[in-house]
């Protein structure tokens, strides 16, 4: 079968880190097996919260990658905040509780001058590069992926100019994303943003969302909606081994944001330290990755978890999945937000593939809860379910201690439908449908 070429327009690409990078890094790895040869357009030096140079190793040989300049206002934004460079905070990390006048001013500028987002300055550079790419490649379709949602405005402009089949991929909500309610957005800004979102949804030949809840949000405004999860790559996950460990560790891996603060969990851990014999000596709470600075302070000072707490700075993706496999119990927290029932983070699939038990806290009727049930993992617990949270931790801690400090792992289960390869096949089918 002769391959067709698809132009993938993505702001996030190595050396940027995180699930937004991995989604299309993996699609580009496997799409050629299903009749589609990707060509990538990205930025030369973007604003990233974290970097992971090791992800370069996952870029398939021979992949055409075009990088352009971009206008990045984050240098100005950070100067207003009293910071340096163009790095960006993850969501509202370290910002939400900052009441300084200069901080409020910088948030107002970010909220109302950069709509839909502060990466909109890439559009003109990207469109110029598209002309070159089209002259050098026989492109049959284009994909834009957001956030940043301004990437979809690039796709919209190409669609209007060339009429080429266009797939808009959404990893997060657009106008309803949780942190918008913390921004001082004017009514005019909200109307403008909603208008952009509606126009993108109505012009795209297909819209892909990472969860059924998110897809339902777009269904009435889009021509075609498909659900394609983030998934996991079998090649990334080390083989799980049941082996002994010196400590029973509850570990969170990734970005722990202000709205991921399960207070009942911290309270339960405090009670277990006080009441359970040996808990303080053999239990550890590890948080690996970026954590909101105010939340980190609360864990030590407010909840007095310092004796069992270890905060590890951001690690490479490879090390992250290795830690998932080696820890005793993984912590998964769905952000507390108005639309959190539709949130399924990319991390959850790798959590499940690691075979490590998961302590999951969030909406019990949400998409993530349904996914855990489908994968035959422990059920999602409500944010206020302190007794159930405490019971799950204590039960597994006692089993570990009484079982010779042996790490327990799930048996093999059929997770292939969540594999990156299978999901790439689904994406290839959507592309084939919109060009037919």
Overview of the molecule:
The protein has 436 residues and is of the alpha/beta class. The protein has 2 domains: 4-231 and 419-435, Glycogen Phosphorylase B (Rossmann fold, 3-Layer(aba) Sandwich); 234-402, Rossmann fold, CATH 3.40.50. The chain contains 15 helices and 12 strands. It has helices spanning 19-30, 74-81, 101-113, 123-136, 151-162, 187-203, 212-218, 263-275, 279-282, 293-302, 317-326, 347-353, 367-374, 386-402, 420-435; strands at residues 4-9, 36-43, 64-68, 139-146, 166-170, 206-209, 225-227, 248-253, 283-288, 309-312, 329-333, 358-361. Helix 2 runs antiparallel to helix 3. The chain is globular and about 70 Å long. The model has no long low-confidence stretch (mean pLDDT 91).
Q: Topology, please?
A:
Layout (H helix, E strand, L loop, with lengths): L3 E6 L9 H12 L5 E8 L20 E5 L5 H8 L19 H13 L9 H14 L2 E8 L4 H12 L3 E5 L16 H17 L2 E4 L2 H7 L6 E3 L20 E6 L9 H13 L3 H4 E6 L4 H10 L6 E4 L4 H10 L2 E5 L13 H7 L4 E4 L5 H8 L11 H17 L17 H16 L1
Parallel strand pairs: 1-2, 1-4, 2-3, 4-5, 5-6, 6-7, 8-9, 8-11, 9-10, 11-12
């Amino acid at each position: 079968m002769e391959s067709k070429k698809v132009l993938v327009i993505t702001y996030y690409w190595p050396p940027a880190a995180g699930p937004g990078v991995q989604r299309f890094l993996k699609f580009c790895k496997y799409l050629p097996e299903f009749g589609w040869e990707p060509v990538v357009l990205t930025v030369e030096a973007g604003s990233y919260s974290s970097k992971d140079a090791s992800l370069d190793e996952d870029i398939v040989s021979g992949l055409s990658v075009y990088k352009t300049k971009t206008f990045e206002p984050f240098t100005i934004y950070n100067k207003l905040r009293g910071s340096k460079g163009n790095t960006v905070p993850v969501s509202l990390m370290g910002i939400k509780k900052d009441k300084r006048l200069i901080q409020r001013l910088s948030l107002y500028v970010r909220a109302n001058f950069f709509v839909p987002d502060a990466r909109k300055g890439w559009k003109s550079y990207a469109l110029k590069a598209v002309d070159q790419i089209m002259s050098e490649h026989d492109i049959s379709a284009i994909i834009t992926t957001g956030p940043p949602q301004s990437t979809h405005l690039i796709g919209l402009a190409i669609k209007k100019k060339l009429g080429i089949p266009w797939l808009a991929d959404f990893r997060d909500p657009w106008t309803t994303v949780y942190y918008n309610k913390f921004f001082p957005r004017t009514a005019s800004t909200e109307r403008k943003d909603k208008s952009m979102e509606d126009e993108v949804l109505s012009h795209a030949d297909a819209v892909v969302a990472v969860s059924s809840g998110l897809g339902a949000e777009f269904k009435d405004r889009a021509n075609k909606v498909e659900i394609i999860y983030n998934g996991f790559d079998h090649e990334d996950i080390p083989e799980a081994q049941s082996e002994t460990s010196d400590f029973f560790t509850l570990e969170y891996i990734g970005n722990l944001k202000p709205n991921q603060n399960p207070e009942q969990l911290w309270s339960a851990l405090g009670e277990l330290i006080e009441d359970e014999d040996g808990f303080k000596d053999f239990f550890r709470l590890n948080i690996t990755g970026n954590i909101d600075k105010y939340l980190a302070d609360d864990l030590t000072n407010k909840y007095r978890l310092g004796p069992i707490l270890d905060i590890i700075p951001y690690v490479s993706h490879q090390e992250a999945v290795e830690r998932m496999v080696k820890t005793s119990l993984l912590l998964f927290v769905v952000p507390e937000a108005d639309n959190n029932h539709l949130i399924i983070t990319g991390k959850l699939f790798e959590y499940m593939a690691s075979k490590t038990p998961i302590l999951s806290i969030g909406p019990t009727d949400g998409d993530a809860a349904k996914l855990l049930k489908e994968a035959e993992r422990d059920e999602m617990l409500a944010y206020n379910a302190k007794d159930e949270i405490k019971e799950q931790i204590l039960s597994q801690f006692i089993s570990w201690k009484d079982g010779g400090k042996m790490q327990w792992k799930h048996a093999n289960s059929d997770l292939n439908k969540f594999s990156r390869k299978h999901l790439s096949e689904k994406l290839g089918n959507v592309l084939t449908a919109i060009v037919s």
